[in-house]
Protein: Arginine biosynthesis bifunctional protein ArgJ
Amino acid sequence: MQKIDGTIASPKGFFADGNHCGLKYKNPDIGWIYSQTPATAAGVFTTNQVKAATIIYTKEILLDGQLQAVVVNSGNANACTGTQGLKDTQKMAALTAEKLEIVPDLVAVASTGIIGKALPMEKIAMGIKSLHKGDGENFANAILTTDTFTKNVVYQTEIEGVCITMAGCGKGSGMIHPNMATMLGFITCDATISSLTLQQLLSELTEVTFNQITVDGDTSTNDMVLIMANGEAKAAEIQVNTAGYEQFKKLLQTVMEDLAQMIAKDGEGATKLIEVVTNGAPDDFTARMISKSVVGSPLVKTAIFGKDPNWGRILCAIGYSGVPINPEAIKIELGNQIVYENGIPTVFDGQLMAAELSKAVIKIFVTLHQGWGQGKAWGCDLTYDYVKINALYHT
Structure:
């Protein structure tokens, strides 16, 4: 497997573009992804009971397991907009299909931005008309809200003698606590695979990637992850319980994990990525829950921002994770420094600890000594800027 430079349009047969239509002040705010042939597709969606019109619409059309395009707007969530919101979503799909000369039922729709405002459909219509089979980086910019950088990842691997390319693109800065939720993620691939197999893989891998990130504990009304595989690499269909299937699964997990980490790193106001690794749990699920409890703790996040090696906050988050533990058996490490072991704090090197907590990526290791389960979670520190951004978001 090799990581390469590229965008969501890098796999064979895919195109993308983005442009500015006036939903935001000046930055790109409308974009699309297009496959020259219909692709098998799968999706995972927000668990929030309040769902945007785009979620309701896209879940429905995905029942057939095929997509050929995705159209996305930022700056307006089209959530809590009633029946008009659903009509506007359907109109976005119809306008996109007309421009691309494809069937409307093959067009997924996603939105992100402020909740409770109707879409300005004249601007949306002009924006869709302005799109071309163009630049994938334009698409990456068009889906951003409070993000500070675009999120692209592309990998290639050889499966049964054929080069397969998979690309991912995402956004998400605040309201990040997936389950599945709070982000937009798009994955394209030129492999041949059934929609059923694709859905099973996406759902399974979401649990260990996107569902293991948290920025602020809020679950969005809008967000989704979609994957499209158009078969344009002209390889044999990937079958379950084969070596090719395992290679494809590894490829997909790598793309999803890279995207998840980029989204966590770019939390609103964040200065550090936090990775929590739990080992020695009774099972993998328990390990994942403990990791996510630690990385989601506001007290842990603020301690990391302040470069404070406060192991007590970490231990506290482990204790309220909802899974049985033995506090006397736990070991906690901040980077390469052991801070708690055998039920008591340890003496650590202050200078080395200061260096660890000054890094851009802070790693916390938790060892339970209760089994062989392991799991990871990702998040970011909680800063003054997070409060500032969200206090002024609507205005």
User: Anything to note?
Assistant: The longest strand covers residues 30-45.
